[in-house]
Amino acid sequence: MTSQNNSQNSVQSLPTISLQGLFDQDPAEASKLLDASKQYGFFYLNFQTISNSETILDLINQIYRFEERLFSLPQEYLMKYDVDDIGYMKLNGEEMLDRLHCLELKNGRDGFESYAIPKDGVLGLGDEPYVRPPIFDENMPMLKAYMREMQEVTISIHKALTRALGLEIGGKFEEYHRINQPSPCILRLLKYHPQPIDERGASGTAHTDLGSLTILFTSQPGLQVLMKGSDEWEDVEPRAGHAIVNIGDGMSLLTNGLLHSSRHRVSPPHGQAMKTRYSFAFLQRAQEQTPLVALRSPLIQANDESFKVVTSGEWLHQKFSMLRAKTHDKEKNWMLTGYREIPTKTH
């Protein structure tokens, strides 16, 4: 890959996966995907290769326009409908103030704003009504189409990794991420406020994603990744017609660390001020009763006897609790990053 800027801190080798290749069940593309998921935990996903690319890319542009309208509304108004604070769709353990006012700059502006839209609410998979701002009603067909498309995309990734790893029936990734089953997946909309060079700082704590897969769309730089074995943050440049995909904690736990959940953050590009930045991500999470235990594969090392099995729902709750806590049990610090050293499997 050739980076889109000349920064020596940009990732120079992040792989690109063809979405059409995944749809076609191309073994070579599945092997390439597995290698990227093990080595980097990040990759570009090319949407331009699929037959209906114009329709999907137009849908992506509609989401951009929708989030700009949404974030123009008063925060006090949006918080009345916030899914992280209301009912059974409470998907987030962060404090409201911390979540909506995440970085205080010198001039008093916030670092970024975030708004979560639950898949189950949009697709009507829950037992309770989805409480939402009126602006959602006129955009519900678009949101439903987006959720379904992203589920299809993530399932194609799961199936390719299932084949590449030789997973068995009853322990396949796609069986834990069924499209029409309730799960705490969300579309997270993000707006990052501008930062002059003299106020530069990372907008939010470096973290790993606690779910299975993240499908990020952004047209502006700012994403930085800490690659495996490196102590230097590297810029991941946006690409037109591509998503940036990363492996989350859930997939890492299901493979006992074989698939890598990389730490990442949003920060002004090296030597530059942060411009107003819009992005959005589909955060896929497994069905809540999914046991996060190493799946059976000749490539995956089994968990040791002391391993305590948690479900996907329990993992979300525990990690959110850790994020809220002011102090942490040192033995559980790895949960903050979703990563702990896993012995290398020998043959």
TrEMBL record:
<dbReference type="Pfam" id="PF03171">
    <property type="entry name" value="2OG-FeII_Oxy"/>
</dbReference>
<protein>
    <recommendedName>
        <fullName>Fe2OG dioxygenase domain-containing protein</fullName>
    </recommendedName>
</protein>
<keyword id="KW-0560">Oxidoreductase</keyword>
<dbReference type="GO" id="GO:0046872">
    <property type="term" value="F:metal ion binding"/>
</dbReference>
<dbReference type="InterPro" id="IPR005123">
    <property type="entry name" value="Oxoglu/Fe-dep_dioxygenase_dom"/>
</dbReference>
<feature type="domain" description="Fe2OG dioxygenase">
    <location>
        <begin position="181"/>
        <end position="286"/>
    </location>
</feature>
<dbReference type="Pfam" id="PF14226">
    <property type="entry name" value="DIOX_N"/>
</dbReference>
<dbReference type="GO" id="GO:0044283">
    <property type="term" value="P:small molecule biosynthetic process"/>
</dbReference>
<dbReference type="GO" id="GO:0016491">
    <property type="term" value="F:oxidoreductase activity"/>
</dbReference>
<dbReference type="InterPro" id="IPR026992">
    <property type="entry name" value="DIOX_N"/>
</dbReference>
<keyword id="KW-0408">Iron</keyword>
<comment type="similarity">
    <text>Belongs to the iron/ascorbate-dependent oxidoreductase family.</text>
</comment>
<dbReference type="InterPro" id="IPR044861">
    <property type="entry name" value="IPNS-like_FE2OG_OXY"/>
</dbReference>
<keyword id="KW-0479">Metal-binding</keyword>
<dbReference type="InterPro" id="IPR027443">
    <property type="entry name" value="IPNS-like_sf"/>
</dbReference>
